[in-house]
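Re: the 176-residue chain
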Amino acid sequence: MAYDFKKMARKAVDNSPGLTTQAWMAPLRTFLEVAKPTNAGVTPGDSILIDGDHTFDIADGFIPIYATQDTASIGTETTGEMDSRGSNKTGEFFYPGINAESIEFMENAKNENWVILFENLDEKLFQMGSKMLPAEVVGSLQTGTLGSDKKGIIFTVNNFGPLYIYEGVVTEKPEV
C-alpha cells in the first residue's frame, strides 16, 4: 500500500451523498477473470482503482438489481485491535415487493460468494468483493403492516476486503 500522499486538500467539487437505484451482483463462480488493480503503488489511490474489465462466459454476467431510491448505502467500520486491524464494509439496499422470484433470489443469495457494484451520483462504481475476499449477501424479508412500513427485502452486503472503484465495463447477464 502506497503512503506517498503529499496533501489531502478539500476538492472543490459537488459532494452529493448517496447511491443510485441501480446495483449489479455477480456470483464469484460465474467469472472467468475478476479484474484487480493494475497500477497499485504508482500514485496515491491506485491500490483501490480497477481499470480492467471483469470477464464472464458468454451466458453469464452481472445481474442488474433495482434498489428503492434513498435506501442504498455503503459504510466501513474498523475491526480488530492494535497491530491487527482491518475493516468491514457493509452495504444495504431495499428491493420492493415480494414474489416467488425475489424470495428464491434471497434464499439462494445467502449461499453464494459475490462481487457487487454500487453506483453513486457521480456515476462512479464502488465494488464490494474480490476473488480473494468475496462479499456475502443476506436478505431480510419484510411484509410490513397495513398502516406503515415497507413490503420487500432488505439486502445486506458484508465484505472484509478493500472498497474498490471499478472503471471497467459492466457486462450484464444476457436475458434469454
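The longest strand covers residues 86-96.
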